[in-house]
């Protein structure tokens, strides 16, 4: 069974920018969510995919991801996802033998910059770069649905510091 093991952190400073090795604009849309599971569609410059993600257990969850035609992804984003779409630029940043993904959000989530690392094992050791803050992997304030709700309630994009101060 395919498993995703991912750890997430807010970005604390711009130290990562000088190490960027690749960047890609992405559009993600939430198709559905139920019992801790979700289905999302993603459209990037070279690829489109649909992913079915199981419930999260710590930093681990099942993930089934399939490439789909770009036209299908565009249609799903425009007709199925509605307001549940997010735009971001994903930067690939090497650090200590790993490639970190740094997501710089746009639109309603502008100002939010998060870093994530994918691991092959939950106990796998890694060196945390000095440009990331305290881990937020299991912090419900940083799930996309919560980010949208908090920003909508505020009537504006929020900073990571404001999100950390927000009640769950």
Topology:
Elements: E1 3-10, E2 22-34, E3 37-44, E4 48-53, E5 60-67, H1 70-81, E6 85-95, E7 98-105, E8 113-119, H2 144-154, H3 160-165
Antiparallel strand pairs: 1-5, 1-8, 2-3, 2-6, 3-4, 4-5, 6-7, 7-8
Q: In a nutshell, what does this entry contain?
A:
The protein is α+β, with helices and mostly antiparallel strands and 168 residues long. It is 17% helix and 41% strand.
Task: Give an overview in words.
- By secondary structure, the protein is of the alpha+beta class.
- The protein has a single domain, classed as Hypothetical Protein Pfu-838710-001.
- The chain is built from three helices and eight strands.
- It has helices at 70-81, 144-154, 160-165; strands at residues 3-10, 22-34, 37-44, 48-53, 60-67, 85-95, 98-105, 113-119.
- An eight-stranded antiparallel beta barrel has the order 1-5-4-3-2-6-7-8.
- Strand 3 and strand 4 form a beta hairpin.
- The longest helix is centred in the middle third of the chain and has 12 residues, at 70-81.
- It starts with a strand and ends with a helix.
| CATH topology call | Hypothetical Protein Pfu-838710-001
Tell me, what's the shape? globular
Q: Strand order of the main beta sheet, please? A: 1-5-4-3-2-6-7-8
| Structural class by SSE content | alpha+beta
| Amino-to-carboxy terminus distance | 32 Å
Q: What is the percent of helical residues?
A: 10-25%
Sheet of most strands = 8 strands, antiparallel, barrel
Can you give keywords for this protein?
globular, alpha+beta, Hypothetical Protein Pfu-838710-001, 41% strand, single chain, 168 residues, 17% helix
């Amino acid at each position: 069974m395919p498993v995703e093991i991912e750890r997430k952190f807010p970005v604390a400073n711009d130290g990562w920018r000088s190490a960027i090795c690749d960047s890609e604009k992405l559009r993600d849309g939430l198709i559905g969510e139920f019992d801790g599971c979700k289905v999302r569609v993603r459209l990037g410059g070279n690829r489109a995919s649909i992913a079915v993600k199981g419930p999260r257990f710590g930093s681990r969850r099942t993930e089934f991801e399939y490439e789909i035609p770009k036209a299908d992804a565009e249609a799903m984003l425009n007709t199925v996802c509605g307001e549940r779409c997010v735009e971001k630029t994903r930067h690939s940043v090497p650090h200590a033998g790993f490639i970190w993904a740094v997501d710089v959000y746009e639109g309603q989530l502008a100002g939010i910059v998060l870093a994530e690392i994918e691991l092959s094992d939950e106990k796998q050791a890694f060196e945390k770069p000095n440009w990331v803050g305290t881990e937020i992997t299991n912090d419900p304030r940083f799930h996309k649905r919560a980010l949208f709700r908090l920003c909508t309630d505020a009537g504006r994009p929020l900073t990571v510091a404001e999100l950390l101060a927000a009640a769950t």
